[in-house]
Amino acid sequence: MNAVAATALRLLALDTSTDRMSVAAGDGTRMAAWHGEGGPRASTELMGRITEVLAQLGWTLPDLDAIAFGQGPGSFTGLRSACAVAQGLAFGARRGQGVPVLPVCTLQTLAQQAQDAHPSQPVLALLDARMNEVYAGVWLPPNAARPHWTQVLAPCLVAPAEVSALAAQHAQQLGPLVLCGNAHAAYADALPGLGHPAVAAWLHTAPDAACALPLAFALYAAGGGLSPDQAQPVYIRDKVALTTAERMAAKAMAA
């Protein structure tokens, strides 16, 4: 964790933006975390996992100073679940006094994971958005001259076939990129591989609450905490399924 994290703050982070579920808590010196299968199980198991993780540190909900959640993009249901749980816990924390909510971008969480193995490389985060699309975002990692992550490309929706050109465009300015996320599992044939000149490495992973914690500490220090009623998911896409006409058109194009 960075210097911002080295405080007495006690934070909880949770992410259910994909079919994986994760929970982490820490104060900058100690951390406990859990990750595993999510999806439909998130609605029934998330609170129990939160209790378990806090217990590993000897904490309970009243001990927390803020609660972070994976804001999106990602699964509509998963994002709503994480936001609702974070809001509910934040409202009730400190025996009803409440604590701030910290919305953390799921794509930036992927970039944070890439930093451990590739600390100086720009990152292109790619998350499976279903419907033959991926969520994409580009970040520059912190360094001596730049103490915080710098967003180069805001999270957006692109077709898998467009990712090669997107990577090449940013590599011209930033150098070879570390590609990270879970999109490769769904669109391996369409995405650029390790032989592509714009690709320095591939990290196949999903958003994880443990990597959201450093971002949450930095967000808190920058005054990014929200009142629980202000916290909202970020969907990027405004629909969850193709219409019948759109499905028929897609089949016709494929044929």
Describe what this molecule looks like in 3D.
The chain is α/β, with parallel strands linked by helices and 255 residues long. Helices cover 33% and strands 25% of the residues. The protein has seven helices and ten strands. The strands form two sheets. The chain has a five-stranded mixed β-sheet with strand order 3-2-1-4-5, sandwiched between helices. A five-stranded mixed β-sheet has the order 8-7-6-9-10. Helix 3 packs across helix 6. It is globular. The protein starts with 10 loop residues before the first strand and ends with a helix. The N terminus is likely disordered.
Question: Which properties best describe this structure?
Answer:
single chain; 255 residues; Nucleotidyltransferase, domain 5; globular; disordered N terminus
Tell me briefly what this model is:
33% of the residues lie in helices and 25% in strands. By secondary structure, it is α/β, with parallel strands linked by helices.
Considering the protein shown, what is the CATH homologous superfamily of the largest domain? ATPase, nucleotide binding domain
Distance between the termini: 51 Å
What is the second-level CATH architecture of the largest domain? 2-Layer Sandwich
**What would the CATH topology of the largest domain be?**
Nucleotidyltransferase, domain 5
